[in-house]
User: Fold this.
Amino acid sequence: MPIHVLPDTLVARIAAGEVVERPASAVKEMVENAIDAGASDIRVECAEGGRALLRVTDNGSGIRADEVELAFTHHATSKLSTDEDLTRIKTLGFRGEALASIASVSIVTCATRHADETTGTLIRFDNGRIVQHDKIGRPAGTTMTVENLFARVPARLKFLKSNQTERGHIDAIVTRYALVYPSVRFSLVHDGRVTFQTQGSGRLRDALAQTHGAEVAERLIPIGEMARDDDAHDMDMPEASIEVSGYASLPTLDHNNRSKIQLFVNGRPIQDVKLSYAVIQAYHTLLMVGRYPIAVVMIRMPVEDVDVNAHPAKAEVRFREPEAVFSAVQRAIRRELLARMAPPEPPSVLSTVDLPGLSRPEAPVDPNAPIEPGWSAGAGQWPAPRDGSAYTAPLHGSGSWERVGIARQSQGGEFSAASPANTGPMPTRSLPALRILGQLALAYVIAEGPEGLYLIDQHAAHERVLYERMLAQRELGPVVSQALLDPLPVQLPADSAWRVEENLPVLRDLGFDLEAFGANTWLVRAVPPMMAQDDIAAALREIAGDLESGDAPLRRDIEARILRRVCKRMAIKAGRVLALSEMQALVRDLEACESPRTCPHGRPTMLQIGVGQLEKQFGRLG
Ligand code: ADP
Ligand code: MG
Assistant:
C-alpha cells in the first residue's frame, strides 16, 4: 500500500481509542463534564452494560447555542487557553477531546440549554457526522445520549467483556465520583432499575454509606483532616501543602484484594500503585498477609505540584514530590490506627520459659456458650470417641523441625510454615493417631504422637474438616438448602452486588436462595444448613467480596472460594473452651482428612515439635 494520509474519520477513531476504551470511559468523560459544568444533580442511565445506551443528564451550566457544534470538535475546550493554564488545571477536563472522540464512535445526541439563554439546542452525530441540529425548549443543563457505542468499530467491540463486566466498570466510575463529590446528587440506572443513589448531602460519610453499604461505612474511621475535628494531633505537619483526608478501615475490617483502596487527588480519582502501597504500609503488621484495608483517601495539594496530563484517560498523575505524598498518606492513616489501638504483643512461642506468650485471646470466652451449629455440620453430630484406642507414644521419637516444615524465625521467636525451599518431604495425607493432652490458650489442642508434641490450631483444623466435608457433599450434587423463617433483605455495596447476580447459579448450587430485591439488595430465602444460625448479612457481604477478586475465574474456583468462606465462618473460633471429647472428635476428623496439615487457605493447622528437638532444647543432647 502506498503511503497516504488517513481520512479524518479514521484519524478520529484512532484517537478515540485513547480516550474511550469502553462504555465506562465514556461515562467518566461525561460525568466529568457535568461536574466541570457545576452540576449538583447527575443522572447516569445505561442499557446492556452501556453498549446499547448511555445517557448522562446534568443540571449544570449547559452549553451556549453557538458553541454546541464546536464542543464536538477535536481540541475544543472552554477550560484551557494558554500554556501556563496547563500547569494549573483545576477542572477535570482540559483536552477538549472527549466529546469529539465519543461522537466519532457512536451515535451521540446532545440536548442542552445554557442557563443564560432561552432556547436550547439539540445536535445529533452519527459516527462523526452531524445528522441533526435543531432549536429546542428544555430546562437549563445538558443531556448527552450515546447509542450503539463502537458499533462501527469492530476492533474495539471485540474487546468489550460481558454486559455485567462493563456494568461493573461503570459502577466503579460512578461510585468513585460520588465519593469525591459528595455534594452532588448522583443516580445510576441500569436497564431501567435504579442501582445506586446518593443524597448529595455534602458529607463523605453519607456517600460512603451508599458506596460501601451502611455497615461498612460505620466502621471506617476518619483520617487526616477528617480526623482533626475530634482530635488535636495536628502538631507535626511538615507536608503542610499536602492535605490528606478521608476514611480508612481499622484492622478488624479488611478485604481480600486492594480494590477497596481508593485514591483521589484534587477531586480526581487516580490510580497509583505506589500510593496504594503507602496505604497498605500504614497497616504494617496490623493486617494478616494477603489481607488489604478499605480506604478512601482524598489528597489536596497545590495544582502546580501535580501533573494531571500524564495519561490519556487522566487516570494516572505525576507528583512533583512523590515521596512527600507517599509519607503524608501513610502517616495520616497510621496515626489514626495507632491512636485507636494498643500495639499487638509480639508473639513469642516456646522460648522455653515464655510459653504463656502464646496466648491469643481473639474472642470473648464464655465457657457456657452453646456449641455453634457449624460444629455438628454435615455429619450431624460429633462421632462418639472410639474406645480403647488411646494412643501411647514411645518415649523417644525421631521427629525434627525439618520433617514437618516448620521454620523458626530469627525475630521474635515466631513460628511459621516454611517456604517450599526448606520444607522437605511433608506428608500431606496420613496424620498418625494422636493422644489429646489438653487445650492451650483456648486456641490450640495439645497432643502427643509418634513424632513428639503436636499443637493443633483448633480453628484452622475445624476449617479443614468442614471444607473437606462440604466438598464431599458437593460431589454428590447441589447442597440442600435450609429455608429461613423470615427471608432477610441484605444490601450490598454497589460494586459487589452485581457479582452476586452474576454468580447466582453457583450460589444456588451451594444452598443459597437469593432473590433480587431493589437497589443492590438481595432477599435471602435459604442458606446452606450449617449457616442457618450465622450472621447472614455479614456472610453474604464477605462472599460478595470474595467474588470480586479475579476476573471470571473458573466456576470450580468460585465454588471453592465460597466454600472456604463458609467454612471459615462456621469453624470454631479461638477462645472457645473445648471438652476432651470435642478435641478427640476434632482431631479424629482431622486425621481422616485428605490434607490434614493445612487449612483450606493453605496455612498450617498444626505445629509439630520432635522429641529430639525437645531433648536438644533441654540440653540433654550435645
Ligand atoms: P474538555 O472537557 O476537555 O474541555 P470535552 O470534549 O469533554 O472537553 O468537552 C468540550 C467542551 O464542551 C467543554 O470544554 C465544555 O465547555 C463543553 N461541555 C461538555 N459537556 C458539557 C456539559 N455537560 N455541560 C456544559 N458544558 C459541557
Ligand atoms: Mg471533558
Notes: The pocket of adenosine-5'-diphosphate (ligand 1) is lined by residues 29, 33-34, 37, 58, 60-63, 71, 76-79, 93-100, 142 (CB under 6 Å). The chain has a mean pLDDT of 81. The first helix runs from residue 8 to 19. The first strand starts at residue 41 and ends at 47.
